[in-house]
Amino acid sequence: MSGPSIPEIETSLFLEALKLRHGYDFGGYSPKSLRRRLETLLADLSCDSLLALLPRLLHDESFVQIVIAHLSVPVTEMFRDPALHLTVRDQVVPFLATYPRMQIWLPGCATGEEAYSLAILLSEMGVLHHATLFATDINDQALAVAEAGCYPRDRIEGFARNYRLSGGLGAIGDYVRIGKEGACVVESIRQRIVFAHHNLVTDGIFAETHLIYCANVLIYFNNQLRNRVLKLFHDSLVPGGFLCLGSQESLAASVVRDAFVELDPLTRVYRARYVHPSPART
Amino acid sequence: MPLLHRLTMAQRIAAGFAVLIALLFGQFLLFDYQNRNLKEIQQQLVHHPFTVTAAVLKVEREVQEIHLSSQLLLSLQDKGEMRKIETRLQTSWNILLEQLEIVQARFLGDSDRVRETRGLLESWWHVLIHRELALLYAGKPDEAAALHATPEYQQRLVRIDENIGYITGFAHSKALSLAQEYEQSAALAKRVVIVSFAVIFLLALVVAVRATQALTRPLRALNQAVNDLAEKRFATIVPGTGRGDEFGTLARSIEVLQGMARRTDEETWIKSQVSAVSALLQLRTDADSFARQLIHQLTPLLDGRYGACYLLDEARQLLELKGGYGLDENGLTRALIPIGENLVGLAAQKRQLMRLNEIPDGYLKIASGLGGAAPRELLLAPLLFQDRILGVIEIATFRGFTEKHQLLLESLLPVVAINLESLNRYRQTLSLLEESRHQQQQLRRSEEELRAQGEALLVVNEELRVKSENLEQQALELRRSEEELRMQGEELVMANELLRQKHADMEAHAHELRNAREAAELNALEVEKASRYKSEFLANMSHELRTPLNSLLILARTLSSNPEGNMSEDQLESARIIHDSGTDLLRLINDILDLSKVESGKMETATEPLYLNHLVARLEQRFNPLAREKRIALGVHLMPGAPMALLTDPNKLERILINLLANAIKFTEQGQVSLTVARATPADDLAGPERILFVVRDTGIGIPEGMEERIFQAFGQVDGTISRRHGGTGLGLSIARELARLLDGEIRVESRLGAGSTFTLSLPLCETDGAGERIDVSIPSLLPVVPQPASPDVAPPVSGNPRSVLIIDDDPVFAGILAKLAQEKGFVPRIVGSGEEAITEVVNRQPDGVILDIGLPGMDGWAVLKALKSDPTTHDIPVHIISGRDQRQHGLDEGAEAFWIKPVSQAQVESVLGRIARKQGGLLQPRHVLVIEDDPRTRKAIAKLLETKEVKTTLVARADEALDRLKQERYCCMVLDLNLGAVSGFDLLERAQTDGLNLPPVIVHSGRELSDRETLHLREFTDHIIIKGERSAERLQSEVALFLHEVHCGGGKGSPVERPLNPAIGHDPVLSGKQVLIVDDDMRNIFALSKALRARGLQVLMAQDGLRALAQLKENPAIDLVIMDIMMPEMDGYATMRAIRANAAWQSLPIIALTAKAMIGEREKCLTAGANDYLTKPVDLDRLLAMMHHELSRAP
């Protein structure tokens, strides 16, 4: 007898329940990574079966945050991709500086390191004061960490290394202060960042943006969802706006392929074509 | 001999050899003596005769020599020679004298003769030398010669000879006599030697024989003795033990060896006897046989003739006779002897071996059959084990006991004692064993007794158990009954509880019933109200639904017509979809409304006369394009006999027929659809008054049997899959049937699956002459085949003479699309379907451009292109080919302006049209860009950056200059610096606005950073704000280029600002004049919204974040409504709303939240935070307006 295996059935039932009850639709996530994450969830809760978690999922309001925290991918670090940061520094920010006010969107920001990294970069380029960074994620727990801006001290070394590699002009100590709660990002950097809950699967665009920095988020999505999200990005970006996808992602097979020009093939920085004027011009 | 015997053998041998050596020495001395004699004789022989003879001979030879030399002298005259000879003579003389001395000394004969000779010679020499030589030197040889001749001289010579002869002769004879003497001495010596040897030999022989004898004789005797010893003849007496020599020593050693061997032999014997006796004794198992065996073995071994063995009875301390040997029955032997009594007892007491040689008479007599005798020696040996007496052995012998016997006894007794002891112990063990066996038996017996007692006890026990079980049973029964009682008690309590519960339930029930009744009453009221609401709803439906829908449709339409030409194909497609969906929705709403009206009986009919020919014409016109598109035949037949006109509700009849026809076409893929209008015949089996039949027949998919009724139900199609394929509202047939009923008619259906269906509408026939009918044949057509004047929302052609374009394509749909687009761009399009037609058309009308398809019926596109390009009158007209096949190069080679491959996008078509528009006489019209910049160098730089063949720039430095320019000319766009001296860029923009000047797209190119406020301000005019910087030139170029691709440039030259955009957007009186605050940090959204809202007569205020929003609210208390974005920096929407609600003055201020979030729960979150309603981004303007309308009409 062939058909979906029991774990598959359980997984889909669980995800369906999550969708119906809480509106989180993980149907567009790559099944493999999703399965892995669900396994971690089970392991962390010392539970054998997803079905056994259903009652909690349905009735326990706070439980969904635990599930989301497990299903999303909060792995990140400061200046995670030094090469990408270099490209942004050299080729993207000079363009962004020609806008009177720049809005940057970091979807899937997880615990916020990348947002802070970018803010530090902008600060060093002297443009942070007229930039707004929207860092969004579906994981409220991660967002809380991000908003606090404090990280375990032992990660500072990694931050510092990546910071240097990505062409940092100062010292990481200028932006991060060691305190009681760990290494905390200084207020001047933090104040330009808006952390908010946003679900790429269901939610729409919320602002006109000049740069979308979305490194290594789309890799967890299937084609359909990826296309949806890329369209969303395209709609949000101004003509000539930039899209950073991270080295693992490409627009080559996507529906918005023709709407972007590849600026740097190595770090996958794309630029929206000047195809049509902004529809707001009426 | 006694002396000889005292000497040792070595001495004797040494003496023998000494004698022999002495003899040999004597013989040697004898030999030596004889030898010396012989030697002496020989020496005499040599010393005398031989020496003398030799000397004489030499003397003689020298005499001769001298004589001859003197002769020679005589013959010589030379004195030299003479001297030589003289010398030689002298030498000879000396030798002669020497020899003569020897002779003189050795000669044994007459020495006088020798002396005489010497004298003679000397006198001769004297003469010769002194005289003769003197003469000769004197030269008187003759005289000299005369001397020789003298007789004296001669005589002397003769005498010399004689003397010499004598001497020689004497010597010779002397030699002979000496030789003889030697011979005699030698013979004597030989004899002496022989004799002495013989004597010595005999002596040695005697010594050897004697020595041999003295050695061998004692050796042989000793050898015999050793052999005897080896053969254990120990009695042999070793000879020569008394000798003092080596043999004596050897003999004594052998004697010692003999003794040792003898002892060893005895010991071996003793040991073997001991072990033999011991082995025998070990076989014994009782003391009596042991004793008997012992004494019988022992006595013969000790050469005893009598023997007795007593063993100690330990209990009684008595020695008891247990075994005897050669015992006289009548003898004095006592069977029991106390220790210490008589010899036996004494031996036991003393614990010593006792030997008695002198046995008292009568003590014992050894008896035999022949007689008896008293023994000679008696031996008493106690048997001791660890110094404990076990018994005594008594043995008597006639011969006496030897050393051997005693040794044997000494060896044997301990062994016997051990054996006896172990036997005793064995006996003891046996008796113990016996005892224990006995005790065991006793034990077994007592066990048996116990068992018997136990069994008796068991019986008693069993009896007791039975008794106790009975007791237990009784106790259990007691407990059970107790439990039962308790249960009964509990049940009673429960029952009580239940009763109480039931009572409470009853009460609750009664309460619920009361509530329910109240609810039912309320419900009834509500139903009534609902029904009223429903009527109201239905009444308001048209307004509430159609108004926004209308706006939507018109907007969508406007959008899809792309009035600004600034939309991408995607967007246009979206707009079209919006339009189509809106239309569908509108239709659905109408249908639902109609249906509900009909159903509730609220639909009224308006009877009017209707000309059937008009009706069918309208229907034909309406459905022809659709049928053509689906390539099915549409036949409309007004049958003879049908009335001219009909008195009915024309709208409703038309609705019915439209529905039926639309349905028929929808479900027909091929074949035909026909409408036949005819009078009913009796055969049509329709009862009642005369009727007219409208028969719609199709060759479509048909309806399965049994489903005929279903298709008339609302939303009822045959199955879901069809609905997906065929679309529609699903209400058409339901409405048709209801309308038919309203008109007193009915619809019947006949169908076969796969063979088509026939719908027949029959109506009562009320003929009329048709007077008063409204004739309205204007049916909106989607694609005008014939060009129409441009609709008001399409920009008019730019120049006075409208540009014309000829579309040559046999696909009417595509040609229609092209025509429509061309029309919108201000062209006058014409469509022809064939090549021949096309050529005539081009030659006659000389259009500004031609769009040509290649695949044409008959003369194809290539032929058309060739014909046009070869005709000088049409040669310059640009031809754009749009073809399905890529033959770009061929097309360009043949002279086409451009080659486009199907499918083409709208943008491409627009590009084609743009190029046609710009190409006048084969040249592209340059595009103009206005650059307003006060810095001359920057101005130049921008001009350089932007200017190309197709782009011209107009450079101005001041704002007023720019305004003047704008009033005079059209520009594709303007690049505006903000710092322009007296009049800034801001001012310029504002002034243009107040002047009602239609500005071209503005690109702000600012040398300084802009504050948020300034940006906000600028964004009212443009999205394109560039801050000068590193990469600003690039961006400027890109942004300008964006506008250059517009088909026509749209600004300047006094063109009025088009506002409101669409007059179709009515001013909602509720909204008009109201003040709205939009709070959003997304400028794009703010301006889009504010423009849309202003267009509807609202006053719009803006705030970019929560704090500014609160400030704005404080400043403007007149604000009627807030549109609140959620995701904002610093103070987000939720917080802002909470802050607003926290202020008492704003409790009822309507707030509509805008959010990008569509998640479950988002709405609740917004409402909780204080919003009145919630809308997701991207904003649906109509929904927003509806919400605003609702909120504002609600508000006081």
Topology of this structure?
The complex is a heterodimer of chains A (282) and B (1196).
Chain A: H1 6-22, H2 31-44, H3 50-59, H4 63-71, H5 82-96, E1 102-107, H6 113-124, E2 131-137, H7 140-148, E3 150-151, H8 156-165, E4 176-179, E5 182-185, H9 187-190, E6 193-197, E7 209-213, H10 223-236, E8 237-244, E9 260-264, E10 269-272
Parallel strand pairs in A: 1-2, 1-7, 2-6, 7-8
Antiparallel strand pairs in A: 3-5, 4-5, 8-10, 9-10
Helix pairs in contact in A: 1-3
Chain B: H1 2-6, H2 9-74, H3 79-106, H4 111-138, H5 141-149, H6 151-230, H7 246-282, H8 287-301, E1 304-313, E2 318-325, E3 336-338, H9 342-350, E4 354-356, E5 366-367, E6 372-373, E7 377-385, E8 388-397, H10 403-561, H11 569-599, E9 608-611, H12 612-630, E10 633-638, E11 645-648, H13 650-666, E12 672-679, E13 691-698, H14 720-726, H15 732-742, E14 746-752, E15 756-764, E16 767-768, E17 803-808, H16 812-824, E18 827-832, H17 835-845, E19 849-852, H18 861-870, E20 879-883, H19 888-893, E21 898-901, H20 906-918, E22 919-920, E23 923-924, E24 927-932, H21 936-946, E25 951-956, H22 959-968, E26 973-976, H23 985-994, E27 1002-1006, H24 1012-1019, E28 1024-1027, H25 1032-1044, E29 1075-1079, H26 1083-1095, E30 1099-1103, H27 1106-1115, E31 1121-1125, H28 1133-1142, E32 1151-1155, H29 1162-1169, E33 1173-1176, H30 1181-1194
Parallel strand pairs in B: 10-12, 17-18, 17-19, 19-20, 20-21, 24-25, 24-26, 26-27, 27-28, 29-30, 29-31, 31-32, 32-33
Antiparallel strand pairs in B: 1-2, 1-8, 2-3, 4-7, 5-6, 7-8, 9-11, 11-16, 12-13, 13-15, 14-15, 22-23
